[in-house]
Design goal:
The complex is a heterodimer of chains A (282) and B (120).
Chain A (H helix, E strand, L loop, with lengths): L1 E5 L7 H11 L4 E5 L14 E15 L9 H5 L5 E2 L6 E2 L9 H5 L5 E16 L2 E8 L6 H9 L8 E4 L6 H7 L4 E6 L3 H17 L3 E8 L5 H8 L4 E6 L2 H8 L4 H4 L4 H11 L9
Parallel strand pairs in A: 1-8, 1-9, 2-7, 2-8, 9-10, 10-11
Antiparallel strand pairs in A: 3-6, 4-5, 6-7
Chain B lengths: L1 E6 L17 E6 L4 E6 L1 H4 L5 H11 L2 E6 L4 H9 L3 E4 L5 H9 L17
Parallel strand pairs in B: 1-4, 4-5
Antiparallel strand pairs in B: 1-2, 2-3
Protein backbone atom coordinates (compact mmCIF):
# COMPACT_ATOMS: atom_id res chain seq x y z
CA UNK A 1 0.00 0.00 0.00
CA UNK A 2 1.42 3.35 -1.05
CA UNK A 3 -0.36 6.38 0.36
CA UNK A 4 0.62 9.81 -0.98
CA UNK A 5 -0.03 13.03 0.95
CA UNK A 6 -0.40 16.03 -1.38
CA UNK A 7 -2.02 19.46 -1.54
CA UNK A 8 -2.43 22.21 -4.03
CA UNK A 9 -1.62 24.93 -1.53
CA UNK A 10 1.59 24.90 0.45
CA UNK A 11 1.54 25.08 4.24
CA UNK A 12 -1.74 23.24 4.70
CA UNK A 13 -0.24 20.41 6.76
CA UNK A 14 1.13 17.68 4.45
CA UNK A 15 4.10 17.11 6.71
CA UNK A 16 1.97 17.23 9.86
CA UNK A 17 -0.36 14.58 8.47
CA UNK A 18 2.52 12.47 7.09
CA UNK A 19 4.62 12.27 10.26
CA UNK A 20 1.68 11.77 12.60
CA UNK A 21 0.15 9.12 10.38
CA UNK A 22 3.50 7.31 10.22
CA UNK A 23 3.85 7.38 14.01
CA UNK A 24 0.21 6.36 14.55
CA UNK A 25 0.87 3.26 12.47
CA UNK A 26 1.76 0.60 14.98
CA UNK A 27 4.02 -1.54 12.85
CA UNK A 28 6.94 -1.10 10.49
CA UNK A 29 6.33 1.65 7.91
CA UNK A 30 8.31 3.66 5.35
CA UNK A 31 7.99 7.43 5.07
CA UNK A 32 9.43 8.98 1.91
CA UNK A 33 9.89 12.75 2.06
CA UNK A 34 9.58 13.65 -1.62
CA UNK A 35 9.54 17.41 -0.98
CA UNK A 36 13.20 17.43 -1.96
CA UNK A 37 13.44 21.23 -2.18
CA UNK A 38 12.75 21.51 1.52
CA UNK A 39 12.49 18.13 3.25
CA UNK A 40 11.28 18.56 6.82
CA UNK A 41 9.85 15.24 8.03
CA UNK A 42 13.19 14.68 9.80
CA UNK A 43 12.46 17.61 12.12
CA UNK A 44 9.59 15.62 13.65
CA UNK A 45 10.98 12.09 13.45
CA UNK A 46 14.30 12.18 15.19
CA UNK A 47 16.51 9.21 14.65
CA UNK A 48 19.94 8.05 13.72
CA UNK A 49 21.03 8.57 10.08
CA UNK A 50 21.64 5.23 8.40
CA UNK A 51 22.85 6.26 4.97
CA UNK A 52 23.48 9.01 2.45
CA UNK A 53 23.96 8.64 -1.29
CA UNK A 54 24.78 11.38 -3.81
CA UNK A 55 22.42 11.40 -6.78
CA UNK A 56 23.34 12.74 -10.21
CA UNK A 57 21.66 13.12 -13.56
CA UNK A 58 23.37 12.26 -16.85
CA UNK A 59 24.42 15.37 -18.79
CA UNK A 60 26.11 15.47 -22.20
CA UNK A 61 29.83 15.89 -22.74
CA UNK A 62 30.94 16.51 -26.32
CA UNK A 63 34.16 15.09 -27.77
CA UNK A 64 35.34 17.98 -29.97
CA UNK A 65 37.59 15.68 -31.98
CA UNK A 66 34.62 13.59 -33.12
CA UNK A 67 31.93 16.31 -33.45
CA UNK A 68 31.34 17.46 -37.04
CA UNK A 69 28.88 20.21 -36.03
CA UNK A 70 25.84 18.69 -37.71
CA UNK A 71 23.53 20.19 -35.07
CA UNK A 72 21.26 17.14 -34.62
CA UNK A 73 21.71 17.30 -30.83
CA UNK A 74 20.53 20.91 -30.62
CA UNK A 75 17.54 20.26 -32.87
CA UNK A 76 16.51 17.34 -30.66
CA UNK A 77 16.78 19.06 -27.27
CA UNK A 78 13.45 20.52 -26.10
CA UNK A 79 15.14 22.37 -23.25
CA UNK A 80 17.95 24.11 -25.15
CA UNK A 81 20.48 22.39 -22.92
CA UNK A 82 22.67 21.76 -25.97
CA UNK A 83 22.99 24.30 -28.80
CA UNK A 84 24.94 24.00 -32.01
CA UNK A 85 25.73 26.41 -34.87
CA UNK A 86 27.74 24.20 -37.17
CA UNK A 87 30.48 24.10 -34.57
CA UNK A 88 31.09 22.09 -31.43
CA UNK A 89 27.86 22.45 -29.40
CA UNK A 90 27.49 24.57 -26.28
CA UNK A 91 26.21 22.62 -23.28
CA UNK A 92 24.10 24.11 -20.47
CA UNK A 93 24.05 21.35 -17.82
CA UNK A 94 21.64 23.30 -15.59
CA UNK A 95 18.99 23.15 -18.35
CA UNK A 96 19.46 19.40 -18.96
CA UNK A 97 16.69 17.00 -17.94
CA UNK A 98 18.99 14.00 -18.39
CA UNK A 99 16.91 12.27 -21.05
CA UNK A 100 19.92 11.07 -23.06
CA UNK A 101 18.32 12.06 -26.38
CA UNK A 102 21.30 14.05 -27.70
CA UNK A 103 23.57 11.06 -27.10
CA UNK A 104 21.20 8.86 -29.05
CA UNK A 105 20.70 11.13 -32.08
CA UNK A 106 24.39 12.03 -32.54
CA UNK A 107 25.35 10.31 -35.84
CA UNK A 108 29.07 10.26 -35.05
CA UNK A 109 28.79 9.20 -31.38
CA UNK A 110 30.60 12.32 -30.21
CA UNK A 111 28.44 12.73 -27.08
CA UNK A 112 28.82 10.74 -23.89
CA UNK A 113 27.00 11.17 -20.61
CA UNK A 114 28.62 12.20 -17.37
CA UNK A 115 26.90 12.43 -14.00
CA UNK A 116 26.13 15.89 -12.63
CA UNK A 117 25.27 15.74 -8.90
CA UNK A 118 21.89 17.29 -8.04
CA UNK A 119 21.39 16.18 -4.46
CA UNK A 120 21.35 13.30 -2.02
CA UNK A 121 19.07 10.57 -0.71
CA UNK A 122 19.34 10.26 3.07
CA UNK A 123 17.88 7.53 5.24
CA UNK A 124 17.28 7.39 8.94
CA UNK A 125 15.57 5.17 11.46
CA UNK A 126 13.04 6.62 13.93
CA UNK A 127 11.21 3.94 15.93
CA UNK A 128 8.75 2.15 13.66
CA UNK A 129 9.53 4.53 10.81
CA UNK A 130 12.19 4.22 8.12
CA UNK A 131 12.53 7.75 6.79
CA UNK A 132 13.94 8.23 3.29
CA UNK A 133 14.35 11.81 2.15
CA UNK A 134 15.72 13.59 -0.87
CA UNK A 135 17.70 16.77 -0.44
CA UNK A 136 18.15 18.80 -3.62
CA UNK A 137 21.37 20.80 -3.88
CA UNK A 138 21.03 24.57 -3.60
CA UNK A 139 20.81 25.99 -7.11
CA UNK A 140 19.74 22.67 -8.68
CA UNK A 141 16.40 23.04 -10.45
CA UNK A 142 15.48 19.51 -11.46
CA UNK A 143 13.58 17.84 -8.62
CA UNK A 144 11.94 14.87 -10.42
CA UNK A 145 15.11 12.80 -10.97
CA UNK A 146 15.89 13.05 -7.25
CA UNK A 147 12.29 12.15 -6.36
CA UNK A 148 12.61 9.07 -8.57
CA UNK A 149 15.80 8.16 -6.70
CA UNK A 150 13.95 8.49 -3.36
CA UNK A 151 11.12 6.30 -4.64
CA UNK A 152 13.60 3.72 -5.92
CA UNK A 153 14.34 3.00 -2.20
CA UNK A 154 10.73 1.95 -1.66
CA UNK A 155 10.35 -1.59 -0.38
CA UNK A 156 7.24 -3.17 -1.83
CA UNK A 157 6.77 -5.57 1.08
CA UNK A 158 6.12 -2.73 3.54
CA UNK A 159 3.47 0.01 3.54
CA UNK A 160 4.67 3.46 2.59
CA UNK A 161 3.64 7.09 3.01
CA UNK A 162 4.88 9.59 0.42
CA UNK A 163 5.03 13.22 1.57
CA UNK A 164 4.67 15.19 -1.69
CA UNK A 165 5.84 18.71 -2.51
CA UNK A 166 3.09 21.37 -2.71
CA UNK A 167 1.46 22.38 -5.97
CA UNK A 168 0.43 20.44 -9.05
CA UNK A 169 3.56 20.53 -11.20
CA UNK A 170 6.18 17.97 -12.29
CA UNK A 171 7.67 17.18 -8.84
CA UNK A 172 4.18 16.39 -7.51
CA UNK A 173 3.32 14.21 -10.50
CA UNK A 174 6.67 12.40 -10.08
CA UNK A 175 5.71 11.71 -6.45
CA UNK A 176 2.11 10.60 -7.02
CA UNK A 177 2.64 8.22 -9.93
CA UNK A 178 2.30 4.67 -8.67
CA UNK A 179 0.50 5.62 -5.44
CA UNK A 180 -2.56 3.58 -4.50
CA UNK A 181 -4.37 6.41 -2.76
CA UNK A 182 -3.87 10.16 -2.38
CA UNK A 183 -4.83 12.31 0.60
CA UNK A 184 -5.26 15.97 -0.36
CA UNK A 185 -4.64 18.22 2.63
CA UNK A 186 -6.34 21.59 2.59
CA UNK A 187 -7.60 24.33 4.91
CA UNK A 188 -11.07 25.90 4.99
CA UNK A 189 -10.05 29.20 3.37
CA UNK A 190 -10.59 30.63 -0.13
CA UNK A 191 -6.93 29.91 -0.98
CA UNK A 192 -7.25 26.39 0.38
CA UNK A 193 -10.33 25.76 -1.75
CA UNK A 194 -8.85 27.28 -4.89
CA UNK A 195 -5.74 25.12 -4.76
CA UNK A 196 -7.70 22.05 -3.66
CA UNK A 197 -9.75 22.24 -6.86
CA UNK A 198 -6.51 22.26 -8.89
CA UNK A 199 -5.21 19.28 -6.92
CA UNK A 200 -8.49 17.39 -7.44
CA UNK A 201 -8.22 17.92 -11.21
CA UNK A 202 -4.64 16.65 -11.05
CA UNK A 203 -5.40 13.39 -9.21
CA UNK A 204 -8.45 12.79 -11.41
CA UNK A 205 -6.19 13.14 -14.48
CA UNK A 206 -3.80 10.65 -12.89
CA UNK A 207 -6.69 8.29 -12.14
CA UNK A 208 -5.74 7.71 -8.50
CA UNK A 209 -8.46 7.35 -5.83
CA UNK A 210 -8.35 10.15 -3.29
CA UNK A 211 -9.87 11.73 -0.21
CA UNK A 212 -9.48 15.04 1.60
CA UNK A 213 -8.03 16.09 4.95
CA UNK A 214 -9.26 19.46 6.22
CA UNK A 215 -6.75 21.03 8.59
CA UNK A 216 -7.43 23.89 11.02
CA UNK A 217 -11.17 23.34 10.98
CA UNK A 218 -12.84 26.27 12.72
CA UNK A 219 -11.18 29.07 10.83
CA UNK A 220 -12.29 30.40 7.45
CA UNK A 221 -15.63 29.31 6.04
CA UNK A 222 -17.55 26.19 4.97
CA UNK A 223 -16.85 26.34 1.23
CA UNK A 224 -14.32 23.49 1.26
CA UNK A 225 -16.89 21.25 2.97
CA UNK A 226 -19.62 22.27 0.52
CA UNK A 227 -17.29 21.69 -2.45
CA UNK A 228 -16.43 18.19 -1.24
CA UNK A 229 -20.08 17.42 -0.46
CA UNK A 230 -21.29 18.48 -3.90
CA UNK A 231 -18.65 16.37 -5.64
CA UNK A 232 -18.95 13.36 -3.35
CA UNK A 233 -15.32 13.65 -2.30
CA UNK A 234 -14.84 11.95 1.08
CA UNK A 235 -13.41 14.08 3.90
CA UNK A 236 -11.40 11.48 5.78
CA UNK A 237 -9.96 13.62 8.57
CA UNK A 238 -10.70 16.99 10.13
CA UNK A 239 -7.99 18.49 12.34
CA UNK A 240 -9.32 21.26 14.58
CA UNK A 241 -7.77 24.73 14.63
CA UNK A 242 -6.20 24.14 18.04
CA UNK A 243 -3.41 26.40 19.26
CA UNK A 244 -1.82 23.49 21.16
CA UNK A 245 -1.26 21.69 17.84
CA UNK A 246 0.60 24.70 16.47
CA UNK A 247 2.67 24.87 19.65
CA UNK A 248 3.59 21.17 19.44
CA UNK A 249 4.54 21.53 15.75
CA UNK A 250 6.64 24.61 16.42
CA UNK A 251 8.68 22.57 18.91
CA UNK A 252 9.15 19.75 16.40
CA UNK A 253 6.70 17.59 18.33
CA UNK A 254 4.16 15.08 17.08
CA UNK A 255 0.46 15.66 17.70
CA UNK A 256 -0.07 11.97 18.46
CA UNK A 257 2.53 12.16 21.24
CA UNK A 258 2.03 15.70 22.63
CA UNK A 259 -1.77 15.58 22.50
CA UNK A 260 -2.85 11.95 23.00
CA UNK A 261 -6.52 12.90 22.63
CA UNK A 262 -5.90 13.35 18.90
CA UNK A 263 -4.20 9.99 18.50
CA UNK A 264 -7.55 8.37 17.72
CA UNK A 265 -8.09 10.72 14.74
CA UNK A 266 -4.87 9.56 13.11
CA UNK A 267 -5.41 5.90 14.06
CA UNK A 268 -8.79 6.21 12.39
CA UNK A 269 -7.19 7.72 9.27
CA UNK A 270 -4.75 4.80 9.13
CA UNK A 271 -7.75 2.49 9.02
CA UNK A 272 -9.55 4.53 6.35
CA UNK A 273 -6.56 4.82 4.04
CA UNK A 274 -3.89 2.19 4.64
CA UNK A 275 -6.35 -0.68 5.00
CA UNK A 276 -8.92 0.32 2.43
CA UNK A 277 -10.90 -2.53 0.96
CA UNK A 278 -12.95 -0.49 -1.49
CA UNK A 279 -10.74 2.09 -3.17
CA UNK A 280 -13.42 3.14 -5.64
CA UNK A 281 -15.39 5.68 -3.67
CA UNK A 282 -13.42 8.65 -4.98
CA UNK B 1 24.98 42.81 -42.81
CA UNK B 2 21.91 42.36 -40.62
CA UNK B 3 21.35 43.88 -37.18
CA UNK B 4 18.65 42.58 -34.84
CA UNK B 5 16.75 44.86 -32.43
CA UNK B 6 14.46 43.74 -29.59
CA UNK B 7 11.03 45.37 -29.98
CA UNK B 8 7.41 45.10 -28.97
CA UNK B 9 6.18 47.25 -31.85
CA UNK B 10 6.43 46.66 -35.57
CA UNK B 11 8.37 49.54 -37.17
CA UNK B 12 11.41 51.79 -36.78
CA UNK B 13 9.43 54.29 -34.70
CA UNK B 14 8.74 51.59 -32.07
CA UNK B 15 10.69 51.79 -28.82
CA UNK B 16 13.51 49.35 -28.22
CA UNK B 17 12.42 46.62 -25.78
CA UNK B 18 14.98 46.27 -23.00
CA UNK B 19 14.49 42.49 -22.65
CA UNK B 20 16.34 40.05 -24.85
CA UNK B 21 15.22 36.51 -23.95
CA UNK B 22 11.63 37.56 -23.43
CA UNK B 23 11.51 40.16 -26.20
CA UNK B 24 8.10 40.00 -27.94
CA UNK B 25 9.63 40.51 -31.43
CA UNK B 26 12.88 41.02 -33.28
CA UNK B 27 13.26 43.70 -35.90
CA UNK B 28 16.04 42.63 -38.26
CA UNK B 29 17.49 45.50 -40.26
CA UNK B 30 19.50 44.81 -43.42
CA UNK B 31 22.18 47.53 -43.64
CA UNK B 32 23.01 46.67 -47.26
CA UNK B 33 19.47 46.77 -48.64
CA UNK B 34 18.09 49.34 -46.13
CA UNK B 35 15.08 47.07 -45.49
CA UNK B 36 13.81 45.33 -42.40
CA UNK B 37 11.61 42.47 -41.31
CA UNK B 38 9.85 41.92 -37.98
CA UNK B 39 9.86 38.41 -36.56
CA UNK B 40 7.63 37.18 -33.75
CA UNK B 41 9.38 35.73 -30.68
CA UNK B 42 6.25 34.24 -29.17
CA UNK B 43 7.90 30.83 -28.78
CA UNK B 44 10.54 32.19 -26.40
CA UNK B 45 8.08 34.51 -24.68
CA UNK B 46 5.99 31.50 -23.70
CA UNK B 47 8.90 29.16 -22.87
CA UNK B 48 8.96 27.97 -19.27
CA UNK B 49 12.73 28.15 -19.25
CA UNK B 50 15.64 28.64 -21.64
CA UNK B 51 14.09 31.74 -23.24
CA UNK B 52 17.47 33.49 -23.62
CA UNK B 53 19.08 30.48 -25.29
CA UNK B 54 16.10 30.06 -27.61
CA UNK B 55 16.02 33.75 -28.51
CA UNK B 56 19.75 33.65 -29.28
CA UNK B 57 19.18 30.68 -31.57
CA UNK B 58 16.40 32.60 -33.33
CA UNK B 59 18.59 35.67 -33.88
CA UNK B 60 21.36 33.46 -35.25
CA UNK B 61 18.95 31.72 -37.60
CA UNK B 62 17.73 35.08 -38.90
CA UNK B 63 21.27 35.76 -40.08
CA UNK B 64 21.94 38.77 -37.86
CA UNK B 65 25.58 39.49 -37.07
CA UNK B 66 24.85 42.14 -34.44
CA UNK B 67 22.21 42.55 -31.76
CA UNK B 68 21.05 45.80 -30.18
CA UNK B 69 19.08 45.30 -26.98
CA UNK B 70 18.69 46.61 -23.43
CA UNK B 71 20.15 43.75 -21.41
CA UNK B 72 21.57 40.28 -21.94
CA UNK B 73 21.96 37.40 -19.47
CA UNK B 74 24.83 34.91 -19.25
CA UNK B 75 23.37 31.96 -21.19
CA UNK B 76 22.09 34.05 -24.08
CA UNK B 77 25.43 35.87 -24.17
CA UNK B 78 27.32 32.58 -24.52
CA UNK B 79 25.11 31.40 -27.37
CA UNK B 80 25.23 34.74 -29.22
CA UNK B 81 29.01 34.85 -28.97
CA UNK B 82 29.29 31.25 -30.20
CA UNK B 83 27.15 32.23 -33.18
CA UNK B 84 29.47 35.16 -33.91
CA UNK B 85 26.91 37.83 -33.06
CA UNK B 86 28.12 41.09 -31.52
CA UNK B 87 26.03 42.38 -28.60
CA UNK B 88 25.40 46.10 -28.18
CA UNK B 89 23.53 47.62 -25.25
CA UNK B 90 21.34 50.66 -25.85
CA UNK B 91 19.18 52.53 -23.39
CA UNK B 92 15.72 53.90 -23.99
CA UNK B 93 14.69 55.23 -27.39
CA UNK B 94 13.23 54.15 -30.69
CA UNK B 95 14.70 51.57 -33.03
CA UNK B 96 15.48 54.37 -35.51
CA UNK B 97 17.49 56.21 -32.84
CA UNK B 98 19.33 53.05 -31.79
CA UNK B 99 20.06 52.24 -35.43
CA UNK B 100 21.52 55.73 -35.97
CA UNK B 101 23.71 55.35 -32.90
CA UNK B 102 24.81 51.90 -34.04
CA UNK B 103 25.79 53.26 -37.48
CA UNK B 104 27.65 56.13 -35.86
CA UNK B 105 29.67 53.65 -33.81
CA UNK B 106 28.25 54.96 -30.55
CA UNK B 107 27.23 51.53 -29.30
CA UNK B 108 30.39 49.58 -28.48
CA UNK B 109 30.32 45.79 -28.53
CA UNK B 110 29.67 44.40 -25.05
CA UNK B 111 32.33 42.22 -23.48
CA UNK B 112 30.09 40.56 -20.90
CA UNK B 113 26.46 39.92 -19.92
CA UNK B 114 25.09 42.82 -17.88
CA UNK B 115 22.40 40.99 -15.88
CA UNK B 116 21.94 37.67 -14.09
CA UNK B 117 19.64 35.08 -15.66
CA UNK B 118 15.92 35.60 -14.95
CA UNK B 119 16.48 39.26 -14.09
CA UNK B 120 13.20 40.65 -15.37
Amino acid sequence: MILAIASGKGGTGKTTVSVNLARAFDSEIQLLDCDVEEPNDHLFLKGAPTGREIIGIPVPEVDEALCDGCGECGRFCEYHAIVSFGTTPLVFPEMCHGCGGCTMVCPVKAIRETAKPIGAVETRRAGNVTLVQGRLDIGAAMAPPLIHAVKARLRRDLPAILDAPPGTSCPVIATLRGADFVLLVTEPTPFGLHDLTLAVEMVRALGIPFGVVVNRVGLGDDRVHRYCGQRHIPILLEIPDDRRIAEACSRGGLIVEALPEYRGLFRNLVGKTMFRTNPKEA
Amino acid sequence: MKVAFTVSGGDLAAPLDSRFGRAPKFLVYDLDKETFEVVDNRQSLDAAQGAGIQSAETVARLGAKALVTGHCGPKAFRVLRAAGIGIHYAGEGTVAEALARYRAGELPEAAAPDVEGHWA
